[in-house]
Design goal:
Blueprint lengths: L2 H5 L7 H52 L3 E5 L2 H4 L11 E6 L14 E6 L6 E3 L11 E3 L9 E6 L9 E5 L5 E5 L8
Antiparallel strand pairs: 1-2, 1-5, 2-3, 4-6, 6-7, 7-8
């Protein structure tokens, strides 16, 4: 006897079943993709603000360890290779031993400790008010203090639905990360 006859009729998917699966899949994708984009923007914002916070911690600890002033300044050194402080922090930044506490990386006395690339396109780094880009030099003294309280606000791309993240530095130079502290400017 034929083995196929004993199993019963062959079963497959009908056109209606396939259409229902496709409709459910389309609905899930329509709802899920915007949620996933928001999660990606939030994750990227945390990563970028974490890089800057890491640079602040590095500068502070190196100032204490070396018993020398250490600074963070905006720099395009990651792209250009030039040891200079210029531009805004969103374009990149460097941490360097800065014996004379100026905004110049002196070739004979100052050592570049670490170079950081800028923020990805669409992300911004401003002051807490959101009315100007962050660009001012950050100096740490040998005792680990900065004597200059500041707030750096990281803004996600427009229409991502993600709150800003801020790095708040107190007068002694201690930095912490705060969520939703300030309103990001409209592009």
């Amino acid at each position: 006897m034929d083995r196929m006859l004993l199993r019963g009729p062959a079963r497959g998917f009908t056109l209606i079943e396939i259409m229902i699966v496709l409709a459910v899949l389309a609905t899930l994708l329509t709802v899920g993709i915007p949620l996933m984009q928001g999660q990606l923007a939030r994750s990227r914002l945390h990563a970028e603000s974490g890089r800057f916070l890491g640079a602040i911690h590095l500068a502070r600890s190196e100032a204490v360890k070396r018993n020398l002033p250490v600074s963070i300044c905006p720099s395009r050194m990651a792209k250009t290779g030039e040891r200079e402080c210029s531009g805004i922090f969103a374009e990149g930044w460097i941490v360097f031993a800065n014996a004379d506490r100026d905004g110049v990386v002196d070739a004979d006395t100052d050592e570049v400790l670490q170079v950081f690339e800028g923020l990805p396109p669409g992300y911004h780094l401003t002051n807490r008010s959101g009315n100007r880009d962050a660009y001012r030099l950050i100096n740490y003294l040998p005792d680990g203090s900065s004597h200059n309280p500041r707030t750096f606000m990281f803004c996600p791309p427009q229409h991502s639905g993600v709150q800003s993240l801020s790095i708040v530095m107190n007068i002694v130079g201690r930095a912490r990360l705060v969520s939703g502290w300030g309103q990001c400017p409209a592009a």
